[in-house]
Amino acid sequence: MSARTAGAQSAGPPPSFRSGELRDPKLSAALRTLELTVRRRLDGVLHGDHLGLIPGPGSEPGDAREYQPGDDVRQMDWSVTARTTHPHVRQSVADRELETWMVIDLSSSLDFGTAGCEKRDLVVAAAAAVTHLTSGGGNRVGAIVATGAQTTRIPARGGRIHAQAMLRQIATTPHAPDGVRGDLQSAVESLRRPQRRRGLAVVISDFLGPIDWERSLRAISGRHDVLGVEVLDPRDLELPDIGDVVLHDPESGRTREFSITPQLRADFARAAEGHRLQVQQSLRRCGAPVLSLRTDRDWIADVVRFVSARKHSFGTATTQRARR
Predict the structure, then answer these.
(1) Averaged in consecutive runs of 10 residues, what is the pLDDT profile of the chain (324 residues)?
(2) CA–CA gap between residue 218 and residue 247 (Å, rounded)
(3) Which residues, 6+ apart, have CB-to-CB distance to 71 below 8 Å?
C-alpha cells in the first residue's frame, strides 16, 4: 500500500482544542483543519435532503390534480390543462428542512484521553460531523452545551457562518471546576422545553454517569429522531497493567492510590462492559442508533461507515411521523 493511499484511508486524530492552550489563530487553524477533514470524507455520503418534516405546501413541485373551486389559480398547470382539456393545478411537496439539536456533554470525564486525542476533542469533531451532515438547504442546527457547572444554549440557525461560530463556542467552552459532576439528564431534559418542531436530536457524551436520562430521551424520541454518539477512551473499558498508580476523579474531587492487580483489572473490565451494555440498551429503548467513537480509532472512518450503513433510513421515522 502506498503512503498516499494509507493517508487517504486514515484521517488521524482530530485537532486538539484545549482552550487554555489555544490562541485565536491556532483555534481558527484547528477548526479549519477539522472542517476540511469532515468535508473531504463525508461529501457524497448522503444524497439528497430530508423529506419535509412538516406537512403542508412547500416549494417543490409534486403531482398534478384537477382544479377544485377555491384552489390557488397561481398553481395552475397549463401544460396538463392543455393536454387533458380540463383545468389542473400542480401540488407542491413540503419543504426539505431539518432542525437538528445537539446535546454536547463536556463534563470533566471528557477532559481525558490516553490515545490519539482527548475525548473532548472527539466531541468537537463529532459535533462538526453532525453539523456538516445536517446543514444546507435551509436546515438549522443548534446545541445545548453542558459541563455540569453551566449549560449554554446556542440557538438553531442555518448557514456556514453560524455553524463555524457554534463549533468555535463548543471548542472554547470553559472546563468545569474540580469536584463538579456532569448532569446529562438536565441537559437532555432541556430539549423538551420549549417544544420544538419535529427534527433530529443528537446526544454526544461518554455516558459514564448514572443512566438517569432515559426517561427524558424517550419523551423526546416520541416526536423527534434521536441519535446517540458515544465517545470513549481505551481506559474507560480496561485498566493497564502498571502496578501502583494514583488516580484522581475530577468530578468528585477525590484522589486515591490503587494497586492494579489482575483481579482489579478483571473486575473493572466486567463493570465497564456491563455499564456500556446498559447504555446501549437504554438508547435502543429510546429508538436511538448508536455511533461509537474512540480516541484510539480513525473517528472519521467510523462516522463514514455509520452514515453509509444508515443513509437509506436516516430521517425516515421523522418523516413518517410528520405525515401522520
Answers:
(1) 42 75 78 90 63 39 76 84 88 67 95 91 96 86 95 93 95 92 94 80 95 95 92 94 89 90 95 97 95 95 87 47 41
(2) 35
(3) 89
Task: Please return the burial class of 231, using the count of CB atoms within 10 Å of its CB with bins 0-12, 13-18 and 19+.
Answer: buried
For 298, the grid coordinates are 480513525
Show Cβ contacts of residue 24 under 8 Å, excluding neighbours closer than 6 positions.
none
Q: Which three cell numbers stand for residue 320?
A: 413518517
Cβ neighbors of 120 (< 8 A, separation 6 or more) are: 17, 18, 106, 110, 111, 112, 113
Q: Nearest-CA neighbor of 258 among 236, 241, 237, 235? A: 241
* DSSP string over 247-312: EEETTTTEEEEEEE-HHHHHHHHHHHHHHHHHHHHHHHHTT--EEEEETTS-HHHHHHHHHHHHTT
The reported pLDDT for the residue numbered 59 is 43
Residues comprising the chain, all counted? 324
Please report where in the chains the cell 463548543 appears, as a residue: 170
DSSP-assigned letter for residue 198: S
